[in-house]
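Kindly inspect this one:
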Amino acid sequence: MAARFRQTFKRDIVIDLVCYRRNGHNESDVPMFTQPVMYTKIKSHPVLVDHYGKQLVGDEVLSKEDFEKRVRQYNDVVKKAHNEALSDGNFVKVHDAEKEGKKVVRVEGSKTTGLKEDVLTFIGERVTALPDSFKPHPKADGPLKKRRAAIESGTGIEWCLAEQMALGSIAQEGIHVRVTGQDVERGTFSQRHSAFTNVETGEKYIPLKHVSDKQATVHIANSSLSEFGVSGFETGYAVSNKNVFVMWEAQFGDFANGAQVIFDQFLCSGEAKWNQQSVLTVSLPHGYDGQGPEHSSARVERFLQSCDDDHSLPADFNINATGQELLDLTENRCSEINWQVCYPSTPANYYHMLRRQVTRDFRKPLIFLFAKSGVRDPNVSTLAEMGPNTAFNHTYVSHAAGPIEKMADEEIERVYFCSGQVERKLKAVLAQKNKEIKDDSKKLGRNVAFVRLEQIAPFPFEQVAQAMQRFEKVSSGKVEFSWLQEEPKNMGAWAFIRPRMREILTKVFKKTEGAARLSYAGRIHAASPAVGHESMHNKEEKAIFDTVFRELAN
């Protein structure tokens, strides 16, 4: 009636609809405790179907016998459907996960994510091209020209160029690409430049939409919605269509806490609760650069705490696995977990991580952090690192004092496992101290090595064990292993990493409980993710450096 009124008279209409719950919150509720007067009236009020039936009989639309017959027919239909559902093997029942064990989907012949160089060059040229008559802002045009030069030389591929090439290749393969967030067109740090605006006409141009005539749709747009709103929409979008790449990026990783309800209720547990596979990728800027407690931490500990990744050594663990066998093992672990947590550190590895999301035969949510300090030169990669037979690297091993090929593993006394930018920052400080030392054999910090974890969950047991084995062999088991992080001790990945690395030390290397001690290097326990004053930040940074390079502390 309201719709007909509005359609006929072109005027708004307000419906004053009074609703109630006959049984309160649920069938076992006792609303009479708090609303005795109201629920005395509700209890005496006829049931809707009876009220409606009485009116139909009174208006002689149905006889009383016809009405009662239809009620019985409906009840029979409902009972029959209920009984069929209970006897149907596909009907959702409660499973005893402890007794039945985790469902394992075996992955074989996992695909590498590298592409031929001519394909990479073609995509790179397209995502760095603008129409001849287009006039971009000079400060946006400079980075674009630099990216074009990097494609031509095959070197100097920075973070967002690697991202554009990954997204361009995904679209070229017929998969719809969607990227949203508060500031994704330009990028929070003016680093992405996925959309250009003509300074003379105001026209917007997105190169990713013009890779080729055969590509799938690309949608990159800033969102005015709250973190809760946009992450909820993108979560639903990613569930409803598997042949799509969907990425939501927070302006700062810290702001993801506004989407915590979506993460907890839907993204991390949707597959376990409803068998809903999601391809949503969540991009979170992270890193301690002295910007204070609201612009430093994506709270990786929260995402890791929600992982169903077992800390025990996997039954199919194989420390000697390499090549395709190792790739299949790690992809199997990804297929079994509820979501992945990664912290890629190089443009090439970022490229592989994004492409990996849609080249698999399964779909899985991805939470990844990226260092704000790593989105520009000198953190660059080459086209060769994205070429044929290349794939996502779970770990990188490096020596603190210089190129790994010039350093001797035998000199290493301490190995620091870490993620993100902390290794790069410590090396930069050490490089300054070594600047005047020309003789490599006299470089400071020669006894320290780093192992960077690019994927934290599912935990890369084989890759971590292989890195440990490398230094265990040459040190006769005397090398000290530590976990290094920027975050306070009660945050970051420490609580997740510690039992898994101890599992390797005790089960693989047969260390006693005392000898399997894994030391910690990083900030102390804190209530706030970061301090709010630059001098305090610098003091904390120096304390971390002095812990890692203890011989140089002053």
